[in-house]
Specification:
By secondary structure, this protein is an alpha/beta fold. The protein has 22 helices and twelve strands. Among the domains are: 93-210, Rossmann fold, CATH 3.40.50.2300; 213-337 and 371-417 and 427-452, 3-Layer(aba) Sandwich (Rossmann fold), CATH 3.40.50.2300.
Length: 453
């Protein structure tokens, strides 16, 4: 019985402990109820995002920013009309002047005539932005087809180099009237007094001409003044007007300063035969010549080389050959220059500015279109008296009080109908050269060597 009572008491104690344990946790239960309430309130506060959400609505000012309509100023800036300037620039690019140069058989690196013409074109390329290229003629039969090549490629200007290209140039200028042509060293004149000016028909052709006889005269004055043997000579290319003018002027200048000087000359029927030029030069040196004038591209260059190898004096032609033919520079006392590069550039300048005209552009002593090159290494070896004599001759030529001996009086009368200043150029036709050839042979045993060449 006691045991049962004890067991019952034990159970009661345990139940009491359990109940007190449960009761202790019951109090916290009310707190959880409060806690959730707060927790629930927190979200409501946290629900402030709704307030934040209002910000976007304000930020919805993009609608204001939608002032792209105002920013539509691009349309003003877009002012295609102003921006259209690129179109003009593009038009200029498209309309770039195209210039073609057809060389004579001497080629573009002849250290002389053709090379100088191309230098004038190159200057125009740099200064005016023209597009240009050259074609070298290997033989006379190439002239027409080389011109055709440029014409079919849409070139605006074609420059032909040399007297020998006269026929081809005249023919093609008529065939391609929309193209401007310029030819160096060839001009056309009325056949008879009262005949129309040929350039009325050849209205797209400009002749770039030079009074080679004037600068040849100055070269002769210097040569005869420097000669110790009293014999000067010229190794010449083909017997055509420009070459003849050089030779006649050279011989006349020598006679002007020294009436007793002996002048020798040989015409060689080629501009590309330096070996023959050297051979002829050596022959004339053997006859006492101590100043050699090389007149005829690479053929004349052979004469200069002959003088250099013998330690004698030489005179270059067309350009300052001290600069273009350094192999002979020690022998060169000067060069008889015609400023082909300047003439070509000036002509292209007139084409660019729209003032180019058909007819003759004459280069002479008066306009500095021809003249002697510097004396370079020989400057200190040429006396002040000799320099003064050359200067005296130059002034007299400018003043018109000194005659070069070219052309002969009869031919000069025929030149009267020609355009100014073409009078001096009348000899360009084949008739005139024949007349002028007489002076060279009459002065020395020139005629014989000419036949051998």
């Amino acid at each position: 019985m006691r045991k049962q009572i004890f067991a019952s008491i034990t159970i009661l104690i345990l139940l009491s402990i359990l109940l007190s344990a449960c009761g202790g946790t019951a109090t916290p239960e009310t707190k959880p109820t409060e806690a959730p309430t707060k927790a629930v309130e927190e979200p409501t506060k946290a629900a402030e995002p709704t307030e934040v959400a209002e910000e976007p609505t304000k930020a919805a000012e993009p609608t204001k920013a939608a002032e792209p309509t105002k920013a539509a100023a691009p349309t003003k800036a877009a002012a295609p009309t102003k921006a259209a300037e690129p179109t003009k620039a593009a038009a200029k690019e498209e309309a770039k002047l195209k210039v073609g140069l057809v060389t004579d058989v001497g080629g573009v690196n002849d250290k002389s005539f053709n090379q100088s013409a191309w230098a004038g074109v190159e200057k125009a390329m740099k200064e005016f932005g023209v597009e240009a290229k050259y074609v070298e003629s290997k033989q006379p039969t190439d002239y027409e087809k080389n011109i055709d090549q440029f014409a079919t490629e849409g070139y605006d200007v074609i420059i032909t180099v040399g007297f020998l290209m006269g026929d081809a140039t005249a023919l093609k200028a008529e065939q391609y009237p929309e193209i401007k042509f310029a030819i160096i060293d060839q001009a056309w004149f009325p056949e008879n007094e009262g005949d129309p000016d040929p350039y009325e028909k050849m209205s797209n052709v400009t002749s770039l001409m030079y009074q080679e006889d004037e600068v040849g005269f100055l070269a002769g004055v210097l040569a005869a003044s420097m000669s110790k043997t009293g014999t000067i000579c010229s190794v010449s290319g083909m017997e055509i007007p420009p070459v003849v003018r050089y030779v006649v002027g050279y011989q006349s200048g020598g006679k002007w300063v020294n009436p007793d000087v002996k002048t020798l000359n040989v015409y060689i029927p080629s501009f590309t035969d330096p070996a023959k030029g050297k051979e002829v030069g050596q022959s004339m040196i053997g006859q006492g010549c101590d100043v050699v004038f090389g007149v005829g591209g690479n053929t004349g260059n052979g004469g200069l080389l002959a003088a250099k190898e013998k330690g004698l004096m030489a005179i270059g032609v067309d350009v300052d050959q001290y600069l273009t033919y350094p192999e002979v520079k020690d022998a060169l006392i000067t060069s008889a220059m015609k400023n082909v590069d300047v003439s070509v550039f000036d002509y292209l300048s007139s084409v660019v500015d729209g003032t180019a005209k058909a007819g003759i552009m004459m280069a002479n002593i008066k306009n500095d279109g021809v003249g002697l090159a510097p004396y370079h290494d020989w400057d200190s070896k040429i006396s002040a008296d000799i320099k003064a004599k050359v200067e005296e001759a130059a002034k007299a030529l400018k003043a018109g009080t000194l005659k070069t001996g070219y052309p002969p009086e009869v031919a000069e009368e025929k030149t009267e109908p020609t355009k100014a200043p073409a009078a001096t150029e009348k000899p360009a036709p084949t008739k005139a050269p024949a007349a002028t050839e007489k002076p060279a042979p009459t002065k020395a045993p020139t005629a014989a060597p000419t036949k051998t060449s």
